[in-house]
Amino acid sequence: MDVGERKPATGAGPGVPERNWAGNIRYAAARRHRPSTVDELRRLVAGSARVRAVGSGHSFNRLGDTTGDLVSLAGLPPTVEVDRERATVTVAAAVRYGDLAARLHAAGYALPTMASLPHISVAGAVATATHGSGAGIGNLATAVTALELVTADGELVTVRRDADARFPGMVVALGALGVVTRVTLDVVPAFELRQYVRLGLPRAALDEAFASAYSVSLFTDWRGDGFGQVWRKQLADAPPPEDGWLGTTAATAPVHPVPGMPAGNCTAQLGAPGPWHERLPHFRLGFTPSSGDELQSEYHLPRAAAADALAALDPLAERIAAVLQVCELRTIAVDGLWLSPQYDRGSLAAHFTWTGDVDAVAPVVAEVERRLAPYAPRPHWGKVFALDPAAVAAAYPRHADFLALLREADPAGKFRTDLLDRYFPRA
Ligand SMILES: Cc1cc2nc3c(=O)[nH]c(=O)nc-3n(C[C@H](O)[C@H](O)[C@H](O)COP(=O)(O)OP(=O)(O)OC[C@H]3O[C@@H](n4cnc5c(N)ncnc54)[C@H](O)[C@@H]3O)c2cc1C
Fold this sequence. Notes:
Blueprint lengths: L30 E3 L4 H10 L3 E4 L14 E4 L7 E4 L4 E5 L4 H10 L2 E2 L11 H6 L16 E7 L5 E5 L6 H4 L8 E8 L1 E2 L2 E10 L4 H5 L4 E6 L6 E9 L13 E2 L22 E3 L19 E8 L3 H8 L3 H6 L1 E9 L14 E8 L3 H15 L5 E2 L9 H7 L3 H11 L8 H6 L4
Parallel strand pairs: 1-3, 2-3
Antiparallel strand pairs: 4-5, 5-9, 6-10, 7-8, 7-9, 11-13, 11-14, 11-15, 12-13, 12-17, 16-18, 16-19, 17-18
Bound molecules: flavin-adenine dinucleotide.
Flavin-adenine dinucleotide binds next to strand 2, helix 3 and strand 9.
């Protein structure tokens, strides 16, 4: 299992990063580029034998790696263009969700969902089907209505949801079909949320808790039976949780989901109303998200299998707890994007924030994967996993269609990486 090396996070800098945010992956690129125009990018892609785009470097595996040319789009103008007639926004690929959200909110608009951190680039997050939580809410990629990208031959093309039959295969594309320069997203009217943290949810109340609000996350350290924290993000006009809600107690001060980390890094809690983008993420832009010295894995399981899948991990609880900072459960709605972990199946997402100790974490990840295998787990593409490629192919009904698209769009393997070759073989 390749989980990189032991190295504390330094965070990706403003240039083309040498390492990912977590520090466990040193990009193997021979050359780094930060074009300032799309034409410069097109020439670079056309003339390169091996090229990958990197976003904000928040993935934990070698998906964004290349031995050739690593290109950051952070030097292109950070445009954000709202189309009020269509209720969409077209945003430059490298813009961070947090920056996009502030601009959208000022214009009276919102995104239905955000990840736990607003620090990630739009194109990088969409490419891996990054998600938040909400029983009726799709992942971030489901909002995409159009993509502008530089293809392997250096052409600049635009693909649209309403015009291209293969669009559902091109959105969650793992950087394998080209370098995305602009992304168009559906937007909704701006809204307000209140965030409450409740303590001590019994596992038996999981379904009720998930159904209780707009966006719900459950956190456990795998040391007890249930969930130490419930993060309930509810529409501002919904009634607050009543006393004794599902056997929980109210947190009386702000908390951080990772033990020992400062609550000041997190978005406002205690039911204070606030704009969607200051409540949907757990972590605040400008502050370290999560803990920093960590690895992450995440497995998307059929929503209905939640209780059984958790029970399957119970015998492993002590080993999980020994290398765990925190485990988060979320739900995500079904969609039709070929490589989305929610393709044709709503998810229970079981996320693990491990310690940064790669040697200690790797065997536990392998055992978690072995125990979840009966539930056809789909990995988060941007996190640490080592699932059997045949099992991954079997878990994605459109795997063969994506493979065909990939071979046609990039016959010379310009955008390929070892990780892509493993899960999407060339021949
Ligand atoms: C602290 C922390 C919290 C996280 N929380 C969540 C969460 O709540 N939910 C969740 O689902 N995930 C979460 N993640 C994972 C993260 O959202 C994904 O790994 C996401 O892909 C990171 O986006 P990025 O911009 O850093 O992309 P990178 O890691 O830089 O790249 C990811 C992929 O996108 C491709 N890519 C980047 N830019 C482009 C482009 N312009 N054109 C084509 N391809 C491109 C890269 O080649 C690569 O394959 C978290 C990660 C961290 C570190």
